[in-house]
Amino acid sequence: MEDSILHNQTPNHTLTTNQKWTIASTSAGFALENMDVMFLSFALSSIIASLHISGAQAGLIATVTNLGMLAGGILFGLIGDRFGRVKTFTYTVFIFAFATAAMYFADNIQLVYLFRFIAGIGAGGEYGVGITLIAESFAHHKIGKMTSIAAIGGQIGAVLAAIAAAFIIPAFGWNALFLVGLVPVILTYFIRRNLHESDDFVATHAKIANHTAKQPVSIASLFNTPGVALQTVGLMIMVVVQIAGYFGLMNWLPTIMQHKLHLTVAGSSVWMIATIVGMSIGMLVFGNILDFFGPRRAFGIFLIGSAIAVFAITLANNEPTMLIAGAILGFFSNGMFGGYGAVISRLYPTEIRATANNVIVNTGRAIGGFSSLAIGILMDHYTLPVVMGCLSAMYIISFVVMLSIPGLRKLSAHHEVAPKATTVEAN
């Protein structure tokens, strides 16, 4: 299903102005999106105390946000494919920025649910449109690396959220923290001023306008043949495992380690930082492996590595080994995240590329987001090795599913048979 993509790439491999703005704006957008999500994590205990809500009501906030992401992913994926990526990207940034800032006025749980759902709509719509901008602006053999660089922006956002929360919440309260969400509005000005639609989208849109090509922008296009349906469902399962592993590990492992190693909150925060550093390095390494050796080898190495690392972390028995284990686990488990957008962008044609990215990834977010609840239930009834064994099994299942997706096999064969062809094809 892969179509040819036009790229503005100079012979000496330097980046064009539009390419620089593409990677800068998407990286910043993902950083601010992740910062918004992490604000909730850092403010949750304060929200519970000030609004006098139960743990179940508090847990539902993240679920509502994920459902908003799914709705926004579907809506803005279709809009981005029909009307343009740049305009749509700025609209999604506006939505999650103002919805995040609106949390300042939330004085009851109903308003919290409403504003988090709207913020989720903006954040969910932003992902696929941003990834599609990258895919249509860079040569095939660089997409993996560039989407991984953009994903690292999300990790920077998590660090910025931690710093902002440490200073703002004690001094001004949790509501004030969410006012920082207005910062992305500044980003939209520079995006609309400097970023342009890709040649690929412009050419495709012109064909549609001239009635020389049809406009198959619908979710049904992701399931219009048995092969495409198998591919779409398979990628959804892989993303569910990716998100489930991320949320489960980031939400539960610090608490687990506090009990197992008798760490303080500060000690578990150091572990968190080590894990985020490992994730960022893993993303860069994964992107390069994907570009040079193809998706099957890249995902194969990281999925098996994740399965081993998740279970091996139960063997850590002191703080130094815990830091090392956390970094290794972050390296493998979240290093793959940028790769999904890269392969989805190559497996689906221009007409439905943003829709495919948003629907597949945000379905994974909506379902995978329940992993925290599932792990909590397992922790109540089973030992830590059993819980980690279940997580490990998930990565093995994802590995088997990955091997069954024909499109990934074709992309990998392209690397094996003609590793230099992508350069010619992209220019």
Automatic annotation (TrEMBL):
Q: Any transmembrane segments, and where?
A: 60-79, 88-106, 112-135, 147-168, 174-191, 228-249, 261-286, 298-316, 322-347, 359-378, 384-405
Keyword Lyase assigned to the entry: answer is no
Pfam families recorded: MFS_1
Principal subcellular localisation of the protein: membrane
InterPro entries membership: MFS, MFS_dom, MFS_trans_sf
Topology relative to the lipid bilayer, per the entry, is:
Multi-pass membrane protein
User: Matching SUPFAM superfamilies, A to Z?
Assistant: MFS general substrate transporter (SSF103473)
* Protein origin, superkingdom: Bacteria
Q: Enumerate the subcellular locations listed in this protein's record, separating them with semicolons.
A: Cell membrane
| Gene3D superfamilies (alphabetical) | MFS general substrate transporter like domains (1.20.1250.20)
Sorted alphabetically, the keyword list is: Membrane, Transmembrane, Transmembrane helix, Transport
Please report the stretch or stretches of sequence annotated as the Major facilitator superfamily (MFS) profile domain: 22-410
Q: Which GO terms describe its cellular component?
A: plasma membrane
Q: What name goes with this protein?
A: MFS transporter
- Look up and give the organism this protein is from: Periweissella fabalis
